[in-house]
Each structure stands twice: as structure tokens, then as C-alpha cells.
């Protein structure tokens, strides 16, 4: 089974709430990712952290704020979301090669199913 | 043009059948290639990486043709448990780009 865990599994929040999604991996990976997946669509990359530094932000609105406190943890802070932000939020991790920047296979957590009311 | 294109299916096949999925990608700088499977309302799970020489893992065989920018997955002796959506995934630098997925339904 996956060694990437995510909490909570489900989250319902109002448009004025502030909440956080949490992700933890125990594989010693140094790259971590946030993806958003809408129903019947493939995952879409939001953010990439490499060695605890943000390396990719796919033009995500500022109401989503990522944080990587250490190499095992990744958070996604949510504030003033819109109903269209309702989706499955997936965290993933992978090894990363420092010299080439090439990443290895990514392993996904079970996701947080977010509903914005 | 989508970066990664797959036939959405569904492919409805009987148990024991052989089924093949194809995928094309547009970025010639793509470095790595994978097949993931995703069950309904679950996370994507890595099925296999795809290597230039082709590779096999049990009933699953993956092929890559870099010249044609084409990837394939062959499933032999289909099982009911193979029913899922199969995602073709291409990596450029650190980012994974997913195809829309091909849905497979194996029927008894």
C-alpha cells in the first residue's frame, strides 16, 4: 500500500473558511507535489517542491498556498476558495537526481476530497 | 493539440482477452514514460515505467517508440480486477503530464 498519507480524507468548507491539507511520506523522497483532479479528468499539476524549495508553481491562484516544513511533510493552505475548487487533491512524492534534475516515478497518496460550499 | 493523447474508450473485453492501449505525446523533450492505473475515486497507482527497449511485468507489456512519439500497453489474459482507467504519463523535467486515460471494463 501507499507510503504517502494525506489528511483529511474528506473536507467540506465554506468560501470564507481557512483550512489546510496535509501530506506525509516515509520513503525518503526529496520531491513532493500537489495535484488537483476533477471528476473524469486526469490529475493537473499545481506545485512541485524539490529539496524543500518550491520549484514549480503552475500559475495556481493565491488562495492556494503550499508549504513544505521538512522533507517528509507537505501542506496546502486554503483560503477563500470558490465552489469550482471542489476536487480531489492529490499529493505525490518521488526521488530526485540533484545533478540532472530528472525525477523518478511518483507515488500518490489517497487524496483529500474537497467540497467548497 | 493535447500534450498526451489517449483513446478514452471504454474498452469492454471478456475475461482472458488481450487488450492494447495506445498513447501519443507531443513534446519530443519528454524524458520518462509511465503507465498508471486509477480505480474509481482512488489515487493513481504506478503500473510500470516504460523503457526504450520495451519491458514486461507479468501480463503487462509496455513499448516506447521515441521516433513516432508513441507508447503502448498490452494486457494479456485480462482479469476482472484489471477493470480501471489506464493513464499514459509523460515526464518533462520534474513535471508529469497525464493523458485523459483509457477506461477498461473486463466482463465475466
Detailed description of the structure:
The complex is a heterodimer of chains A (117) and B (108). Chain A has 117 residues and is mainly β. Chain A has strands at residues 4-7, 10-13, 18-25, 31-37, 44-50, 53-57, 64-70, 73-79, 87-94, 107-108, 112-116. Chain A is 0% helix and 55% strand. In chain A, strands 2, 4, 5, 6, 9, 10 and 11 form a seven-stranded mixed β-sheet that branches. Chain A has a four-stranded antiparallel β-sheet with strand order 1-3-8-7, with no helix packed on it. Chain A starts with a strand and ends with a strand. The model of chain A has no long low-confidence stretch (mean pLDDT 91). In chain B, strands 2, 4, 5, 9, 10 and 11 form a six-stranded mixed β-sheet that branches. In chain B, strands 1-3-8-7-6 form a five-stranded antiparallel β-sheet, with no helix packed on it. In chain B, strand 9 and strand 10 form a beta hairpin. Chain B is globular, with a radius of gyration of 13 Å. Chains A and B meet through strand 5 and strand 10 of A and strand 5 and strand 10 of B.
Relative strand content of chain B: over 45%
**Beta strand % of chain A:** over 45%
Overall radius of gyration of chain B: 13 Å
Number of strands of chain A: 11
Outline the biggest β-sheet of chain B.
Answer: 6 strands, mixed
Give the fraction of residues assigned to helices of chain A: under 10%
Most extensive interface between two protein chains, with residue counts: A-B, 27 and 21 residues
Series of secondary-structure elements of chain A, N-terminal to C-terminal: EEEEEEEEEEE
Spell out the helices and strands of chain B N to C: EEEEEEEEEEE
Content-based structural category of chain A:
mainly beta
Count of β-strands of chain B: 11
Overall residue-averaged pLDDT value of chain B: 93
Radius of gyration of chain A: 14 Å
Stretches of chain A where pLDDT is under 50 for at least 5 consecutive residues are none
Oligomer: heterodimer
Portion of residues within helices of chain B? under 10%
| Count of separate DSSP helical elements of chain A | 0
Largest sheet data of chain A = 7 strands, mixed
